[in-house]
Amino acid sequence: MGMYRVFVWRKWGTALAGNVLRSQAFPLIFLDLVDLKEFCKSQGSPEADDLNHWDITFWSERFRESKYELNEEELRPYLSLPRVMDGLFNLVNILFGINVEPADGLAPVWNHDVRFYRVNDSSGTPIAYFYFDPYSRPSEKSGVGDKPSLMTFLEVETVFHEFGHALQHMLTKQDEGLVAGLRGIERDARELPSQFMENWCYHSGQRLSADAFSAFEDVGLENEKAVKETGQRFRETVLALGGGKAPLEVFVLFRGREPSPEALLRHHGLLSVTISA
């Protein structure tokens, strides 16, 4: 009987955590849907009063283009693969004091598009190596002639996300393989570094990563010295400790307190939303 009580309590606690965002977000979601339907009607859409999921995706993009004059395809010229990777490597240098440099030729590759990189610490000592294979095969997208590949914003997010996972493995200080890198970390907590990295190109919708990113906002994103110090603390806790400590304990070591949903709500613009009874 006791086991069932524990199970119900855990499920209830999880549901309560999720309801914090859900209860705050619902009023804005409802208003957004009303605005979207009005836009569809103004465009003569026959499905305006009964939008399906695929309709919402299509018309939301048209609404963004109309309201903000923003077309995601127009971002591509600014998101060439070399520029994105240079930005990513410069970011991790500032945050974590590591230098990523090409090491092509030091290891065999399975395709001419595959790159091999070396990661050095601030003293120039190699601490890790990694492969980067950006193209899907057999239909590759390796650019045309001398022109670099142009990325969508979602692809940029994906690169930052996956590099967050790579950092967990490359910067771990655990000697025991069973708790090094991603291993030994609970499923919901292992996404913290990857979603945290997404924050630097946009924002993430996860509570832990939003709260972690707010540590950098608190010191001022334009304050490079403070950002470096905070990044070093993130490296020595979240990235270095792996599964050697409980995720909550690791987070407290980095943030100085337990996680709070406030940063997540703020990142979604939900703190000022009033819920009527």
TrEMBL record:
Keywords: Hydrolase, Metal-binding, Metalloprotease, Protease, Zinc. It holds the Pfam family Peptidase_M3. One of its GO terms (molecular function) is metalloendopeptidase activity. Residues 21-139, 144-203 form the Peptidase M3A/M3B catalytic domain. One of its GO terms (biological process) is peptide metabolic process. It comes from the Eukaryota. Its cofactor is Zn(2+). Binds 1 zinc ion. The keyword Cytoplasm does not apply. Belongs to the peptidase M3 family. This is Organellar oligopeptidase A, chloroplastic/mitochondrial. The lineage of its organism: Eukaryota, Viridiplantae, Streptophyta, Embryophyta, Tracheophyta.
